[in-house]
Amino acid sequence: MEGASSNGVLSKLSLLEVEARSRGSHPQPQQSRVKELKAKVEALKTKRDQLKAELQTHKLLQRLRLSEVNHSEEEDMDEDSESSRVLRLMARHSELTDLLRAHRLIGGYEVVKTHQGKGVCMSIATGYEGVYLDTYNLEMDTNPKVRISRHNIPPFIPLDTLAEQSDLQTGIRTFLDTLSQHLNAYVGRRQQLKLMKEQHKSVEVMESNILCSMLVLMFTMPEQVAVLCLLDYKDLSRCLPTQVKLDCEDEKLTDSPQWKKSCSLLLELPVHRALTAMKKMGTVV
Amino acid sequence: MLKATLEKWDRLTPHQRQSVDFTLPKWVITQTLVTICEENGLTMKHITELEMMHVIENPNQGTWYSFQLLDPEDDAHSVELMLFKEQFKTHLRELMRNVSIKIKKHTDEAVWIRIAWGSGFSRPNHLKPTYVVHYLQSPYVFVRNLTSKLKPLLMQSLTLSTRHQAIKDANLSGPKLMAIRDLLMKQYQQSFPTNDASPLAKENQPGPIVNEQAEARASRRRMASEAFGKGAVPQLQSAVYKLETKYRDPSNRTMTERDEPFRCVVKYSSSNILESFRHCASAGIASTPVTPLLSSILLKGRNYFVITDNAPAAASQTRQADL
């Protein structure tokens, strides 16, 4: 019951009465209110000055970047050399960030800092014929040596060999370019196979492999002649085959000009397009 | 399951298939099938074909062990199926005369090998075949039901026929073939840091109610998915840590004073341990950043670790147990 009396309605009322009595003098609340408002004004003033300073810095950075592009004399900088150096660095930094963003937009790779600057993460985008396909990522430690720590690149892409060939410490750009080539080529070959299966249902895939580096197809020529076609993609950085072999039972056909034309089409065009062309020519049913 | 395989096998007439009553006890079904097969004049060759088909469709029995091929020769990348089949059969037959080998390529580019082992004097034992799965041009091989006596024979044939110089234990095993395959072939979603703005998945909390720990929670979730993947993870069922470290407990002097390491084995099991670990980390039960002991499962693609004092993260010692 004691607890109830300190929390009950009557106690609440008596508290309010005490408050009302202490608020006897009128000027007090007004004064405190005025103080409050003055403090707020100060805070807003400092914020305004801060924003003005930031705006100034940005304007100077813009001028710096433009001046570097136009190779013109620097604008009159009345600050001392320390802050002008900082501004130059900031200008360069924003330039590089924009460049990186642009590079990524055109389908190149993107670099992101991780682990408070102790590592980087590269993202390589792949695509074929204007369609964006998979994105592959590599996380690397930069201290003490450049080393790949985590990635989602499939094991049949020779990542270790490529890393050895171009020295990761100095030639990381070459490594990324070669890796991007290999990945794009693999994805391209895989996409070609998928498109071929969709567009040419009459062509049978006898053999393929997980790296899409070899393809054996069977299609029929007019008069029910079955042709076995072997496509070898020995150069893993390319989407087109390095060797084409066509085989059929009828010996005479192998010498015909149509045959040679088909071989060259399969070497020059992606497989789904080559088959479309061959169908148009009437070589393939 | 067997019913579906029998249909696919296509060596029995529909009438014969219908005459098999799958609600009867196992030995009755077996008897019926044996009679039907004898009627059709089917031989061991056909039965092994049926068994292989069944195993390919339902691989999640027994335990699959993974191996990694090392040091490929220059022409390893151009090994194609015909050549591999020929070479493997030749090499294995050179090492053991009485073997029955069946090689089949599955639609997902996997090469399945069924081996029934005999010995110098006896015919192949078809009741305990070894199954091997390999993806050409990838370095991994998955094996089920291989005794340690026959292991060197298989390993040598595989190494030679895939044009590599060595093979080692990959320290990853489990009952689900697809799970360990997805893990090693990196066919699961990983989470990487990017500059993209995170999607607007934030909860719309009304007015003054603010989640005090929103940042901490988001960071835990991020670290958990970086260590254990995003979305559906491969269904691993266990992780084993064999500890060979010295006992460390300041309150227990007798144990700490011993010179030899305190040997013990820590085993985590669950129907999906990666999912469990991920949940523990994002809920805050496991500390984040995730310890490398746990994140190595996905990072190094293994679930058997030997921890010694010199190398606290995974040591590359192979297991001694029988397969």
TrEMBL record, chain A:
Alphabetized Pfam families for the sequence: CENP-O
Subcellular location: Chromosome, Centromere; Nucleus
One term under GO cellular component: nucleus
Coiled coil: 34-61
The keyword Nucleus appears for this protein: yes
Keywords linked to the UniProt accession: Centromere, Chromosome, Coiled coil, Nucleus
Family membership: Belongs to the CENP-O/MCM21 family.
UniProt-recorded name of the protein: Centromere protein O
Provenance organism: Nothobranchius furzeri (Turquoise killifish)
